[in-house]
Each structure stands twice: as structure tokens, then as C-alpha cells.
Input
Amino acid sequence: MSIKIGVIEGDGVGPEVVSWGVSTLEAVSRDSGLEFEFVKAPVGGSTYLETGKVLPEESLAILRGCAAVLKGPMGRPDIEAGVVERDGILALRQIFEQYVNIRPVKLFRGLEAASPLKDALLERGVDFVIIRENSEGLYARMGGMTATTATDINLFTERGVRRILEFAFDIAKKRGKKLVSVDKANVLSGSLYWRRMFEAMAKSHPEITCSSQLVDSFCILVLQDPSPRKWDVVVTDNMFGDIISDEAAAIVGSLGMSPSANFNPGGLSMYEPVHGSAPDIAGQGIANPLATILACAMMMRYTFDREDLAVKIEKAVQKALDEGFRTKDICAGEPHCSTEVMGEAVLKYLH
Ligand code: IPM
Ligand code: MN
Output
């Protein structure tokens, strides 16, 4: 029986990169015992201009019938900022209760020159994962605006904090048994609540080395030493997770190398690149498809429990980089290749 994968192409470079994600999934499913059926679900800015809805009911119905979703970036400069984010991306995360956002931060071999950090800081490699709370905090959409005041409530619930921390402890157990919680407990009550719960839970996980770090300090420390000596699993709230995952993406060379999973452990999860729709380069065929391809590896790992297929995709990406293929965002001087050439290179090594 075939497995339905929902495909949201998104806006800007979305369709260009998502098509390589679909090809990757097709390639990796061969001889794997998995058979995928891809169903398109229009969501985003272009969908809004065509139908008047960012997330039409029909698309939602399609997604409800899927085992996983591959999502492209969305947003258009000709639509007021915030509309697509609120009614598209954030709505999907809420509707499907994707309360975990998993963001791996890994420096691929050969990309040292694309990182703004000095070589010496990268010698030990970079390989950690950010577990970002994905349903509350400043993203709870509580608050409002008058002519003279605007408020955003930073929501921390017992259920919300507990479930994300439990998830992070679980990942830490499976990885290097080192967990850092990032907060701003010296100022924010939500953060203090979070830190107290983290410290209480740390006591029942003596096998894991736990520590807390203030977010401003984290931002410096990760630049001074991004190595596995310091970071393995980092857990943080929604807003801080948004910010530090972009900083971390720069460290490993580009947002074009950074995949992400909006994860619901018992439900429908959605895999996407961390980068945006990049309207400035849309249609030029130069976007980096690797973040989307790596998001497909995450889909194999987290939704289908197929570590073998996830590793296969990640190895093919490494092989393409080893062979010297570089899109513009990661090329640091050398002549760069197109989206298509990079996509084909990965597919070649998958076969
Ligand atoms: C991300 C994005 C989104 C976020 C935006 C587009 C709503 O920046 O996935 O990191 O803030 O979560
Ligand atoms: Mn972001």
C-alpha cells in the first residue's frame, strides 16, 4: 500500500527546491519497501492571491490524509508581512500540534570556507541539534494592538514546557547525553518557570549532563566554540529557538544547508528548509536544494523510523559536496552550480 506524502510547494524558490525533495524521496524509496504517493496541497502566498485563502479547506483535507508533509518556504513581497506566516506556517504548526521543532546544526565536510568562523574554530566539527518549542511562547498569538500600545503575551504552560523538555531529554539520551537549556531566566518569568522545570527534570535524569545558559551569552559562546565538546542537544523556547537557529545556520555555512522538522510525536509532522522563499533569487535556478533534501532525510528518520534511508540521503549530500558541487550560497569564490546540477549530483549518489 502506498504512503501519502503531502507536498506544499510554497512561494518564491519553494517549487524549485521542493521538486528536488520529491525526487530524493522517490529515489530513496526504490528497493526500500516504502512506496510513496505525492499529493500536492496548495498553501501560501500564491495560493492566497489565487483563492483568497492562504490555507484553503481543501488543502487542509488533503494534508489530513497524509503520513507526512514536505513543505517549501512561503511568503511573497506583494502580500503584507505576517499574513502568510500567521495563516499558513504558524496555522499548520498549530492545527497539527507540531509542538517540537527539530533543527540539526551540522557542518558538512568541505564547507568550512562558507562559514564566517575561522578554520581553527571549526577543526573539531560542528554537530548539535536545537530542539525548539513550537507551539507557545511569543508565538501563542495572544495580545493585540491599539493606536498607542502593542502587546505579545509570552505563554508558558505546564503542559507545553513539560512536553518539550521531555522530548529534549529523550533526544539527549539517544545522542551524547549532554543537554543545554537556553533561556532568559534572569529577566522573564516564563523563562524562570521553564528553568525550574528543567532543573527538576534534570534530577531524574542523572545520566544526562544538564546545564542552563542565558540566551545572550549562548549567542557568544556558540561563536567562540561551536564544537561537540560544548554542544550536543540544545533546548529552548519558540522565540529564542527561531533566532539561535538562524545564527547556527550561518555557522555551518548557510541557511541553505539547514533542514527542520515540525514534529508531532503522535501525529502528522511537516518537514521544511529553515530558509525563506528568497523572492530575490526566485526563478533563477540558483537556490540551494540541500536544506530541503536534508529535510527529507529527517522525514525518513523521524516519521518513518528509517535511519538507514536518512543516512543514505545525508551521505549522498556529503558526496556531492566532496565532488565540489557548490550552489552560490556556499561557494565562497569558486564558480557555483545551479539548483539542478546540485540536485542531480545528489540523485546520482543515491542510486
Ligand atoms: C522559521 C521562520 C518562521 C518562524 C516564520 C516564517 C513564521 O522564521 O521557521 O524559523 O518564525 O518560525
Ligand atoms: Mn526563523
Q: What stands out?
A: The domain at 116-251 is CATH 3.40.718.10 (Isopropylmalate Dehydrogenase). The CA atoms of residues 104 and 129 lie 4 Å apart.
